[in-house]
Structure formats: C-alpha cells, structure tokens
C-alpha cells in the first residue's frame, strides 16, 4: 500500500478518462484568477490546447500570435522581462519542436519565467501520425539549462501542475497528451515540483513512470502481482529537477528499476534515471519507451499496442527484465 491517494476505480472498466490538456485549461484559468500578471499566448490552437478557457475568462490578457511559434516564445520572453508570467501553447511538435532555439536564447538563457506548454505530445495523437507524434521533447527540454520539465500523469494532476509552474518563477515546460486517458490520482493527491511519489509499495523491482505511462505501470504491477512479482510503482511527474532521493531509496530496496515513458527512450526519463544510478547507485535498469523509431498513424489504442506500451506489454517486458536480473 501507499499513502498516495489513488482513484478507487483505478482498475475498473468504468475508470474516468479525460484528456490531460483539459486539466491544463482549468489550471491556467484558475491561476489567472489568482495572479493578474499571468498572460496567455497561443499559436492558432487555442481550442485544441484548452487555452480557450483562459481566453474566455481574461480576453484582455490573451494574445493570438498565429502560426508563428518562434514569435510566440520571443514575445513571451519580452513580456516576462516586463514583469508578466506568460504561458505559451501549441502542439509539442511545433513548440518546442520548431522553436527550441528561441526558447533557449530568449527564455532559458535569460532565466525568464516563460511557461512552454507542449500539447498533443507522445503517440496518443494517433491518426495524425509521425509528423505530429512528438517523442523527442522530453530530451530536448531536459538538456536546456534553467528549464523545469513536468509531464503530468492525468488531468487532475495537470491542473495542479499548471498552478504550480505559474508560481515557480522559472522557465518551465509542461507536457500534455491529447487523447482521453485514465485519471488515477484524486483531488487529494499531492503534487509538488521536483517530487516523485510512491503509488504502490513493492520489494522485487521499482517501476518509474511519467506522463501517461504511470497508469500503464500500475496496470502492469497488478498483473505482475498475480504472478508473484512484487513491484513498487513510482510516479515521476517532474523529470527535471529529478527527485533523486525518492528514486534512490526505492532502488536500494528493490535492487533494480524499469522506467516507462511515451517518448523516445534516449535522453528522457530513462536517460535521467540511468545517469543518476550510474553516478550514485549502479544497479540494473530497463528503459521502456519508443526505441529509436518515429510514430505511426492509427487510433491511440492501436499505436500504443504496436509500440508495446500498454499495461500488458509492459508487464511482459518487466517480467523478462526481472528474470534476467535476479541474483
């Protein structure tokens, strides 16, 4: 068991599903009500990214820049320098995919509190295919100095994360999924930038997930428990700064770790954890995600199945890893 409050319907077929981006929309609107310095800028995707909730509530604090992602972040950086707290939103394929250099030189280099919201990230964009399935954004943003990187696990957490980054005074990247995904947390579940959370206690292997993959790891842990494998599940919504203490404490107990992310394995959460263990606690690590491939078109469920990122597929991969690494 864990002290982290989980949705009691977590494993039900009727578990509530909602797009993670919907939580961002609510969180931005609520943050805007708390702080009049918050402004919002969008690159012609206001409804899709759910920034429309802020636009309707605070039209005088909303700017539509059009399909001009480089301009989106440079204008935001100027507004931040003038004392505003700007949120920018677009598809992650375009921001940070198209404007990484402008984010670096105008926001991060100057340590300005620009909030980069990359929506429709990961494989769950589905039919839009490889050009829109942004899989490299975690690694792109994690290597940028001064940048905070957050990938909420569900819509409830996305709302909390939005409010948190609005107040953190740092350039920040918020990664959002498009499709409806299960809500595993509750309004009482904690969220703090830089913290990871133990969702399920275990002794045989640590499973660390971020974004949409945390839910799939919970499903995998349930499957493995029925086979006698006692998995501990960590949720790592903040990829940078990484909660080294929580991860290391879990791995000291279990002796091994598997990470999972709906992104490229290279440079993402798995890369961050591998760097941490390599420097401080060498232990076996398995990294699950997209393995040096681009995405493909299909329904979100079909694509996750094809890339073996469903709970059942993760359980199969974890079982094989545990069998190989037991002393």
Could you explain how this protein is built, in words?
This protein has 327 residues and is an alpha/beta fold. The protein folds into two domains: 17-182, Rossmann fold (3-Layer(aba) Sandwich), CATH 3.40.50.970; 197-325, Rossmann fold (3-Layer(aba) Sandwich). The chain is built from twelve helices and 14 strands. Strands 3-2-4-5-7-6-12 form a seven-stranded mixed sheet, with helices on both faces. It has a five-stranded mixed sheet with strand order 9-11-10-13-14, sandwiched between helices. A two-stranded antiparallel sheet has the order 1-8. β10, α8 (213-225) and β11 form a beta-alpha-beta unit. α1 (20-34) packs parallel to α7. The longest helix has 15 residues, at 20-34. It is globular and about 60 Å long.
CATH class of the largest domain: Alpha Beta
Give average pLDDT, whole number. 97
For the CA atoms, what is the radius of gyration?
19 Å
Give the neighbour order of strands across the main sheet: 3-2-4-5-7-6-12
Q: Counting H and I runs of at least 4 residues, what is the number of helices? A: 12
Could you say how many structural domains there are in total?
2
Largest sheet, in brief, is: 7 strands, mixed
**Beta-strand content estimate:** 15-25%
Q: Give the CA-based shape.
A: globular
Class inferred from helices and paired strands? alpha/beta
């Amino acid at each position: 068991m864990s002290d982290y409050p989980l949705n009691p319907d977590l494993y039900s077929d009727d578990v509530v599903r909602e797009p993670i981006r919907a939580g961002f929309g609510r969180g931005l609107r609520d943050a805007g009500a708390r702080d009049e310095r918050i402004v919002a800028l969008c690159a012609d995707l206001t409804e899709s990214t759910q920034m429309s909730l802020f636009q309707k509530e605070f039209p005088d604090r909303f700017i539509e820049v059009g399909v001009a992602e480089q301009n989106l972040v440079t204008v935001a950086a100027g507004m931040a320098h003038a004392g505003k707290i700007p949120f920018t939103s677009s598809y992650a394929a375009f921001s940070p995919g198209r404007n990484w250099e402008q984010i670096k030189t105008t926001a991060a280099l100057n340590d300005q509190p620009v909030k980069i919201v990359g929506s429709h990230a990961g494989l769950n964009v589905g039919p839009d295919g490889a050009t829109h399935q942004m899989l490299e954004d975690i690694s792109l943003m994690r290597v940028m100095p001064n940048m905070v990187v957050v990938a909420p696990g569900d819509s409830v957490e996305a709302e909390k994360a939005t409010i948190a980054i609005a107040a953190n005074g740092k350039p920040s990247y918020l990664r959002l999924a498009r499709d409806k995904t299960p809500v595993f947390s509750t309004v009482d579940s904690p969220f703090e930038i830089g913290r990871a959370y133990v969702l399920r206690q275990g002794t045989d292997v640590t499973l660390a997930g971020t974004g949409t993959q945390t839910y799939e790891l919970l499903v995998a842990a349930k499957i493995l428990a029925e086979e006698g494998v006692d998995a501990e599940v960590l949720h790592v919504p903040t990829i940078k700064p990484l909660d080294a203490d929580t991860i290391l404490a879990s791995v000291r107990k279990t002796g091994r770790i598997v990470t999972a992310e709906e992104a490229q394995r290279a440079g993402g959460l798995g890369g961050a954890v591998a760097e941490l263990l390599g420097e401080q606690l060498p232990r076996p690590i398995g990294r699950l995600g997209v393995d040096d491939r681009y995405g493909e078109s299909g329904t979100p469920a079909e694509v996750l199945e094809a890339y073996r990122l469903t709970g059942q597929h993760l359980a199969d991969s974890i079982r094989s890893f545990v069998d190989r690494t037991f002393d």
